[in-house]
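Subject: sequence -> structure tokens, single chain

Hey, anyone have a minute? Need the predicted structure for the following. Not urgent.
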Amino acid sequence: MESNRQMNFPFSAIVGQSQMKKALVLNAINPSIGGVLIRGNKGTAKSTAVRSLALLLPELNLIQGCVYNCDPGRPQSICGYCSDPVLKEAVSKPVQIVQLPVGATEDRLVGSLNIEEAIKTGTREFEPGLLASANKGILYIDEVNLLNDHLVDVLLDAAAMGRNYVEREGVSVSHESQFILIGTMNPEEGDLRPQLLDRFGLAVEVSNDIETDSRIEVVKRRMAFEQDAATFVAKWKDTEALERNRIEQSRAMLSEVTVSEEMLYLISDICASFGVDGLRGDIVMYKTAITIAAYEGRTEVNSDDVRESAIMALLHRQRRQPFQEPALDQERLDDIINQENIGHNNSRESSESTGEQGSSDDDPAPPESDDNGEHSDRDEEVNQDNDESSPSAGKDEIFEIGLIPKIKQLEMRADDQKQRSSVGRRAETNSASGIGYYVSSRIPKGKLNDLALDATLRAAAPMQKHRIADNSNAVVIRPTDLREKVRYSQTGTLIIFVVDASGSMGAQRRMVETKGAVMALLLDAYQRRDSVAMIMFRKETAELILPPTNSVELAKNMLNTLPTGGRTPLSSGLVKTMEIIEREKTKDVNSLPLVVLLSDGKSNVGLDGTKVMQDSELHNICEEFKFRGVRTIVIDTETGYVKLGKAKDLAEHLGGTHITLEEFATQNLVNAINQNRSN
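Reply:
Had a minute. Here:
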């Protein structure tokens, strides 16, 4: 077993990333902290650190052959197999790391009915899942932000309760499932929902931004390990042993650590001041602080322990603005701690004042929103909108992003029966990946990949009296009886933003509100893991300024610097959009594009770049969208008392939905999407 361990890179040999390593060690000492979420870009030693952590943990005393890793020293928690009167041998095993794949099914995670035994003997026997294998070990989820939400819910429930409860297919099972939960993620690929983030005890940020000497040392150590792993591990053997002993001593000391009333007040003041919802943050800070004290060899928690615990426990629990990176104001944290050192009574009064101010700062609606909301220049002449001689039409301008309206999340449904991958959270569709909810069954077409046992047995049951069973099977199954599961899941979509950036958008600062509307949709796309693309049309042509990407942050940056000025080549914008859709269809024929056009519908440049623009040209292009069933939403940016209604006419020819910019913040976009489903 020791030789197997030597294949892992030593934990102590990891260069830098001290906070990540500290968070992992604290969870190894006290798993009740609730795990750790490691956020960072690729190549920051996240996976290496997790695998190396197992080297520092003492071997487990387990019952030989038990699939639940029962501890013979805890008879109150052993399973039915281990409670059998037949003597079971106890063995020592290293801590196991169980990795949960992103594409795992719920059956694989929690366990399911043993199909083989059901068919052979007719008995309902439970087949344990990964939560059983991870008991008393480490459950590692790489790219946890890409895991289906319902799996994350099940996973975190099991981690919080320490038990896995399974009720499915006539099987009712409960078993112990206590593990160190570790998740890693790349923030560029989307974040977890806030309620799921809160379920992780600690969160740390790691980065590649290290100095040159450290980078060189990383390369040297990695090359030395790859060339001769045994020699490299032996070099760090003593350092690893010291850290292992320190963890064991910390575990033994944990029950002796005390927390004074002053430190309890300090924990509560910090959580209140930073606007942390609920009490989970307070509890995690308490557990983390006592663990830090034990790790440092002390039996009493001090303010430094509380400060360090706050940095790791509150990073992901603060309210944030859209696209705002998580960060803890450490100067503010130090001020609270310094006030507490003066006197906790005064500090509570001060922190309450700070908390009220902080809640105001965290309000998603900025107090100065009136400046970007309604504008007095609505009273301007309406013909200024399309006046090429206006100042905004003659030069390029860059407008700020206006007030971001609150909208209900867009929902889509694939009305066809095509099977799609389950990466995303927006469109409801038939699943092609074995992931999702089991909703019905069907006769398989080709190879059977996802057996629906209940439907198969129902199909075989009426024929059993005409079939002769052999000695091994209780139920005789024929190939014609087989049924496969039809699963329903959610998939992502491609949202193509087509933005009118002509000079008329600068009049009455319409581009400010337009950018705010796009930001609201970008936030929705960010939460639903959609791909986004952005097309700008201005002057004589249209330009793809952002190819389809999963990085909504890039789209936000492009929007922020989007110039405004020139004429309005609307036809070119629509043609460019269709080109992008066709290109994406060649990559994935089952892709679900959604076009969001933000324009007043006024076009004055033809496809040939001339100033002559025929309505028939534009209508023919629109009819192509309608014929192909492309879902479109036209957000009408026209303002003023006298409106020409060009955008509404455009939406009718596109077969899409028309929403005015004024209605956008209040319009139920769910209904808008559902009204224009493709056939």
